[in-house]
Amino acid sequence: MRWLTLVLLIVIAALQWPLWFGKGSWLRVWQLDKQLEVQRAVNETLIARNAALDAEVRDLKTGTDAIEERARSELGMIRQGEVFFQLLQPAHKTPPPH
Description:
Elements: H1 2-21, H2 26-62, H3 65-75
């Protein structure tokens, strides 16, 4: 009887081994779930970036406002007869103690 119990435990362990540690095991499924979550987060970031780039491309194709805005902000261009003013924010100073 003792041998039968031992043999049955070994058979059960042998049958359970692939479930827990084999190629399609629970551990592997858990790892793939974590990878899937990370990849979905990356995909969401890339989708948002692609949407912003798509909107910018459409704006550049249809209107001149975006081109003018980029020329002013990135290249520092101004129209003829305009005067360029640059306003600087004052540095944050702590008030003197009383």
